[in-house]
Structure formats: structure tokens, C-alpha cells
Write a structure and sequence with these properties.
The protein is built from six helices and seven strands. It is of the alpha/beta class. The chain has a single domain, classed as Glutaredoxin (3-Layer(aba) Sandwich). It has a seven-stranded mixed sheet. The chain is globular, with a radius of gyration of 15 Å. The N and C termini lie far apart (47 Å).
Length: 176
């Protein structure tokens, strides 16, 4: 067995499967959180964002880690496609707002907002706590929330690849 294959298999066995507690059709818990885009802080209010259209709320474990940075870059590259579908993208982790101000510039490339859930309340409300590190660290789960406040689509995977395509397809379907 090659070293690369062995490493991939070992990582897959050690990597817990992401889970999504909210299912399609479930009401998405409303929240207000400190957020940043392009390094500028603001208050993100889910209810206000939903008045403009659907919202992709994606949870990730930790800013500036490899998988989370890849996922943020991928969402940044797809931001214009989401905007064309009148869909807002916001990432959420338990990082503090100062960390996320930097992450919003470096990893998110000034394209979309990231929100701080330092106390883990939203992570708990959405029941996306990372099982390996119980408490406030988020699992990698993406939700598309329809303007009516209900979950329209879910993608749960610790692999950062796939979240963007799943959410784009769901947003396109919702727009039709």
C-alpha cells in the first residue's frame, strides 16, 4: 500500500462523520451575531438577511486551519454565483471577532461575512457541535435557509469540498 493511500485511509478512519441535526423543512433558529466582512465588524441578523433572499449558513470548526481556509476560499470564489441567486453566504465558528476580522480578509477574500459564536449558542441551537470536541466547536455543516425561515437543504461533511456545489444546486432549485 502506498504511503499516500495509507495516510488517506488513516485520516478517513480518524475523521468523524459530520452530522446535521436540522433536517429539510425544520425551522432555522433565528440569531444575531457579531460578524465581519472585509475586516469590518457589523451585526449579522438572520431575520434581516432572509428578507433579501435565502441564506447559506455554513458552520466550520476553526478559522485559519487548513480545511476551513480551503472552504472559505471556495465560498469566496463562488460568491458572485450566490449573489446572482439572491443568496447571502455567512460562515460561523466559535472564533472571536478579532480573529474573524482577519479571516474575512485573508481566507474569505473580502467576499462574504463570517460570524463569531464565541459562546457557542448558535452552534448549540443548530446542534452542530463537533462530537470529538464537545462544547462550542462547530462541525462542518452547511444549511440553505429559505426566506420563510425553514431549512431548504443540508450538506454535512468534514471534507470541505462539496459544500459549495451542494449549496449552489440547492439555491438554484429554490430559485426555480
Amino acid at each position: 500500500m502506498s504511503r499516500r493511500l495509507f495516510t488517506a485511509l488513516a485520516a478517513a478512519l480518524l475523521m468523524p462523520a459530520a452530522h446535521a441535526a436540522l433536517t429539510v423543512g425544520a425551522p432555522a433558529p433565528d440569531f444575531t451575531a457579531d460578524a465581519a466582512v472585509g475586516g469590518q465588524p457589523f451585526k449579522f441578523k438572520l431575520a434581516e438577511a432572509l428578507k433579501k433572499g435565502p441564506v447559506v449558513l455554513y458552520f466550520y470548526p476553526k478559522a485559519f486551519t487548513s480545511g476551513c481556509t480551503v472552504e472559505a476560499h471556495n465560498f469566496a470564489e463562488a460568491t458572485d454565483k450566490f449573489k446572482a441567486l439572491d443568496t447571502t453566504v455567512i460562515g460561523m465558528s466559535n472564533d472571536d471577532i478579532d480573529t474573524l476580522k482577519k479571516f474575512s480578509v485573508e481566507a474569505c477574500r473580502n467576499k462574504f461575512a463570517v460570524a463569531a459564536d464565541a459562546g457557542g449558542k448558535v452552534i448549540k441551537d443548530y446542534d452542530v457541535s463537533l462530537k470529538m470536541v464537545p462544547g462550542t466547536m462547530a462541525d462542518r455543516v452547511s444549511y440553505l435557509i429559505a426566506p420563510n425561515g425553514k431549512v431548504a437543504a443540508v450538506h454535512a461533511s468534514m471534507d470541505p469540498d462539496g459544500h459549495i456545489d451542494a449549496m449552489l444546486k440547492a439555491a438554484e432549485k429554490l430559485k426555480k
